[in-house]
Amino acid sequence: MTDRPVTRFAPSPTGFLHIGGARTALFNWLFAKKHGGTMLLRIEDTDRARSTDEATAAILDGLSWLELGWEGDPVSQYERAARHREVAEELLASGAAYRCYATPDELAEMREKAKAEKRPPRYDGRWRDRDPSEAPEGRPFAIRLKAPQEGETIVRDKVQGDVRFPNKDLDDFIILRSDGNPTYMLAVVVDDHDMGVTHIVRGDDHLTNAARQSLIYQAMEWDVPVMAHIPLIHGPDGAKLSKRHGALGVEAYRAMGYLPQALRNYLVRLGWSHGDDEMMSLDQMIEWFALEDINKGAARFDFKKLEALNGQYMRATDSDELTGALLRTLPHLPGGPELAERLDEQKTGQLRAAMPGLKERAKTLVELVDAAEFIVAKRPLPLDEKADQLLDDMARNLLSDLQPKLEAVNDWNASTLEQAVRGFAEENEVKLGKVAQPLRAALTGRAVSPGVFDVMLVLGQEETLARLSDQTGAD
For 175, which of 87, 186, 239, 468 could close a Cys bridge (C-beta 3.0–4.6 Å)? Predict the structure, then answer.
């Protein structure tokens, strides 16, 4: 490919940036990056009743979080309505379109007749070749494209292959409504042409639109962009993706504690793959991505696979970097704002120190927030049910005897702490677990945590001994 491609992502701001839209944006972005091109952003906000500024902001925020940057300012489709009308008038003047004066009652009658004859509803072309002098005075009109009635329109698609549409099935569709507003079909073509879009990558629910839009390109004698219609995402059961499957906004995945790079990696493999590679860097995605390698069949969304992949990313991420990612994301996580309030400079340092152990047991940032609770917990620590069971009378007596040993530790590090606790267990002729498990319960309030020696190291000697005293009653 010699010319630099221009792709576009064109969401409607009627809600969040859903997961299918995020994948479409990712595919556009990767293709543009691979070939040294650019991705543009167009907000298709012509549905004024449903379009909101809040939804637009959520879409921009979601793309930014996923690090899918676009070139220039976002384009508002609504603000370009005058240009769309101008092209409709050009098509009218060239004879490629015509005024249609059919009334709503007449159109309803056409639909009913088609239904009775068990055929798809089609406009019957009654104003296609009539002389303009026959126009009823003062009656509003729509402008329809004069579509070819014979032959076929071929969409040469990079994913679907050549898809053929009989022209008789495309009918003379409306490009400008009787109220003067352009239709989506016209607006998309005009915007893509004016923005210099060379490649259109979008969901395969737009495949029939592609045939009709090709007719507008041809009528205007414009080059038809290269098209790639990607399959939709289904749930694990093969049904259309719904909220129970994961049809949520990107911000919901951030709130569930997924890392943007992990979600990006998961999305790129929904319908596209590179051999058996599971984890791949952004540079690898860009290098390997090809439209022709996108599957024709629908991809299946699987939360378990996403969660497992996210866990891999967390373990592979540098502990300081992961701590930074967690701190930045706290405002969006359940329990995150409360944790942030209690993280002073000392506690933040303890969080950084604990991260190597914390990340080994967590699959999401939400789990990290939960696991880090022991660092900021106020004394005396509340015990969960299993921790309470571990701290029976025998265990508390053992911990009471252990305290002087820990008080005597001069160099407070993981090695000396393990040596002290192991030595104590041997002296008392008990297995290490009989000491380590209640010790963990007393220090964290839980039966599961990072390694108990790591916990002691993070808390420090003073806090460790204070928490033990709370549970043993020793001074």
Answer: 186
